[in-house]
Amino acid sequence: MPGDRRNETVLILGGTREAADLARQLVADRPDARIITSLAGRTREPAPLEGEVRTGGFGGAPGLARFIEYQGVTQLIDATHPFARQISANAAEAARLTGVPFEVRTRNPWTKRPGDRWTDVKTLEEARDAIPSGARVLLALGSQHIRLFSSREDVHFVVRMIDRPEEPLSLPDHSLVLGRPGDSAAVETMLLLAYSVTHIVCRNSGGKAAYAKIEAARQLGLPVIMVERTA
Ligand code: NAP
Q1: Of 93, 156, 198, 227, which has the fewest beta carbons less than 10 angstroms from its beta carbon?
Q2: How far does the centroid of ligand 1 lie from the alpha carbon of residue 2, in Å?
Q3: Every domain of the chain and the residues it spans
Q4: Which residue, by CA, sits nearest to atom 41 of ligand 1?
Q5: pLDDT tens, residue order, the chain (231 aa)
């Protein structure tokens, strides 16, 4: 709230497990500070967060800069997903415009371990084209990227989503699984086996939360088509 008398106001750009952990830690460590997490609003029922939460776009870098000034933000932390490029660019620009201290907390990418069978690709288009005909693919991507794969009529896709999509998926042949990613390799193995998955397509987002499926793929000897991070 404007006019809040606390000296410190930390704005965390979130939407990730790491941002939620950070909010919890800051609320515990800095009881005199206002800790605000910002969410884009893509998930209908986001997991509960410690501290304050605000939801929805700011209106680009200028909108974020206005928010920072109006709310008296004293520290800005970008803890968004490593593939959420626009908000990170906006955060850097808003920090430049306002001069607010700015920190980026990006997860390290996963690195290949013995037993991993990864095909590294640079783009989602390359990932789509690398899927062999007849494959059954766990498409572990955000809903906005699913449409790109609709030309692969020769592939069965398994799509997991937190919320039921408002419109039917544009994929010709698919199974829809509603729920959050499993947090252990054992849970992910059950999914992969239940749907007879032969390949996984995902992006190298790093972090613990999404790693369970990579571990499960290694244990089952399944190939992973991995979209690399670009600089
Ligand atoms: P994006 O393409 O970088 O952002 C698009 C627009 O969404 C931004 O310009 C901004 O709108 C708004 N936005 C994004 N993150 C926001 C936040 N934390 N708070 C307020 N507004 C936000 O982002 P995205 O890839 O769609 O991801 C959206 C959110 O989901 C991010 O917060 C990210 O951490 C989370 N997430 C993304 C992925 C992924 O694979 N990309 C995976 C897991 C979680 P305005 O310009 O209007 O401010």
Answers
A1: 93
A2: 24
A3: 9-104, 117-227
A4: 84
A5: 555 556 899 999 999 999 999 999 999 999 999 999 999 998 888 889 999 999 999 999 999 999 999 999 999 999 999 999 999 999 999 999 999 999 999 899 999 999 999 999 999 999 999 999 999 999 999 888 999 999 999 999 999 998 899 899 999 999 999 998 998 999 999 999 999 999 999 999 998 889 999 999 999 999 999 999 976
9-104 and 117-227: identical CATH topology: yes
CATH of 117-227 among 3.40.50, 3.10.450, 3.40.1440, 3.40.720: 3.40.50
Q: Evaluate whether 54 touches 82 at the Cβ level (below 8 Å).
A: no
**DSSP letter string over 184-225?**
SHHHHHHHHHHTT--EEEEE---SSTTTHHHHHHHHHT-EEE
Ligand 1: does its nearest atom lie under 6 Å from the Cβ of 109? no
Ligand 1 contact via 63 beta carbon (within 6 Å): yes
